[in-house]
Every structure is written in C-alpha cells, then in structure tokens.
Design a protein that fits this description.
It contains 6 helices and no strands. The chain is mainly alpha-helical.
Length: 108
C-alpha cells in the first residue's frame, strides 16, 4: 500500500507541475521542484505546499522500504508495515491526489 500511495502522490504532483508549465524532474520526490516553482502553481496548491512537500518526501522514503525492505537488518518489506501503516499512507495520499485534481478557480 505504501508503494501505491507514493506512486499516486508522485504522479499527481508531477501532473500539477506539468500543468503549471514546469519541466518535471525524473525523480520520485518532486518536493524541491514544487518549492522552486511555487510562483507558477495555482493558489490552492501553494496554500498547501508544506503538506504536499511533506507527503512527497515521507511517502518516497516509505516506498523504498516497502519495495526493498530494510537491507541492513535483513527485514523484509511485509514485516515492516502494518495495516495501520497502510491506512496512514492512504490518509496522506488521498488529500494530495484530490487537491491536485481540483481545477483552480482563477487560473494563473
């Protein structure tokens, strides 16, 4: 679930950047691109920039663990995440995707 939530957030944020005319970086966490192009984003996204950046960073980190597990300890991915973790990832991703899908009232 963490991987899927990260993918949804990544694609939603990259779509928002593209829509703002920004060249999208070929990385999973686009938080730096969001911050450096804040002036190009619609106001409904700039108002929530801290939440968007936090979600992008956190879910990217969790996605790596969900994909590879913890290589240092040898713990596989399934053992690292609980149902509560999955629910939390979904609670983080859903508002980001919904916000990015929203059309601005007054396009810039």
């Amino acid at each position: 679930m963490a991987r899927r939530c990260q993918e949804a957030v990544e694609l939603a944020l990259k779509g928002a950047l593209r829509e703002a005319g920004v060249e999208v970086p070929k990385i999973h966490d686009v938080s730096d691109a969001l911050r450096s192009n804040l002036h190009r984003l619609p106001s409904h996204l700039t108002a929530e920039i801290d939440a968007l950046v936090s979600a992008s960073r956190r879910l990217r980190e969790e996605s790596e663990l969900a994909f590879y597990g913890d290589e240092e300890s040898g713990t596989d991915a399934e053992a690292l995440f609980s149902r509560a973790d999955a629910d939390d990832a979904l609670r983080t991703a859903r508002p980001v995707v919904e916000l990015c899908a929203r059309r601005p009232q007054n396009p810039q």
